[in-house]
Amino acid sequence: MCRWVATSRSLPEFIRTSVKYNGAILMRTGGVTEDIQYRVTSLRSVLTVSRKMPIPSPRHISAPKTIEKLDQSDGHPAIQKSDRQDSPCKSDHWTSCSLERGEQSPAALTEELDYLRQTNKKLLEELMSRDRELETLRLDSELQEQASQARIAEKTAALVEEVYHAQRERDEAVMARLRLANEERDEALLRVQHLQMFLKELEDINPEEGDTTIQELVGRLVEAEGGIDIQQNGELILERIRKSRERRELITAEEMGVVIQERDSARAQVTHLEKELHQLRESKLVSMDDEAAQINFEAASKVTLNFLQDDQEEVIERYKKLEEELQTLRVYYSLHQSLSQEVNLKEQYSRAVTLYDEALRNREELLNINHRQNQELAYQLQQAQNQCTELQESLQRATAYQQETQEKVYKLERLVDVLRKKVGIGNVRTVI
Questions:
Q1: Which stretches are tagged as biased composition: Basic and acidic residues (predicted)?
Q2: Considering the entire predicted model, what is its pTM?
Q3: Which candidate among 12, 327, 342, 411 keeps its CA 20 to 30 Å from the CA of 113?
Q4: How far is CA 113 from CA 40, 54, 56, in A?
């Protein structure tokens, strides 16, 4: 009985600690819902009621007591008090009270024991229900934590996808830049090829200065052996190119001026003809009252209109021709710009030629040094071969001398054996 009392006293503390622990877990997860808060408050109310509940003991119970009922309004157990008042006996008079109540029957004690068992069973059921509720709360918190982890994983996946997308965009930008650089390189190579073709086509521009052409000067530059010849031919080529560029600039400037003037005059003539046509149309509309004058005017206007249309067509054709000439001049101007870049190419060519001459001189020096080193190594190799032959001969002589000495030793040993046998010592050989 005392054990049951201790258990019933420690039961609220166990429920309170479990509720606090699960509440701390729920607060740590950060996902407490309204349902979970309501359950926690209901558990706390049950704890407060269990604290106020009296502890049954054999001294206070003499008849079957009513079983606790659940209040239908708020869900808390409402405990009915026993009909009998508490015993006036105190704890120090326990023995005297037990003697005075010795006349109680065993049936009352069994009923009291049954009541205690029922209350203990109900408390255990309530404890199990609270444990189930706590387990559900724990599972809810775990589910919420898993959901939060899933959201975090989704966010990280989205960030990784954004990083991959940015990396792909960067790679595409790099590839676009590389393609642009390759296109520029191809354009530069085509420009160089056009320049080479243009140099092949260019002939002597100033006949009074000499009969040599640029192609012949380039051939001289290629066939030149010394640096002075290369420099002279390069200067001649640059001078010819500079003069041709200046003349082409003058020619293109004059042609551009003429083309622009013709274009402006053609445009002015077209506008003048359009104004005249508009005036003729207006005069035609005004003179519609007079039929005879209208007929004459229409005939004259048709003639003039045909004439103007012919003039307009001629002006349009001339304008198209001027546009074509302008396009050709633009092409010439682009060639002029490419020729301006030719000076840099020639400078690079001269630098490359000088570097090539220096490399040739360095190569000749290195070849001379290697030749001298090879001669020295060949002389050393010949000396080493002579020494090797001498050593082989000395080795052969040494081996022959060793064989002779071994034969002599063998003969002497045999002679010693024979002498020992004659003397009677025995067949014993000494080790030399």
A1: 81-93
A2: 0.23
A3: 12
A4: 33, 17, 11
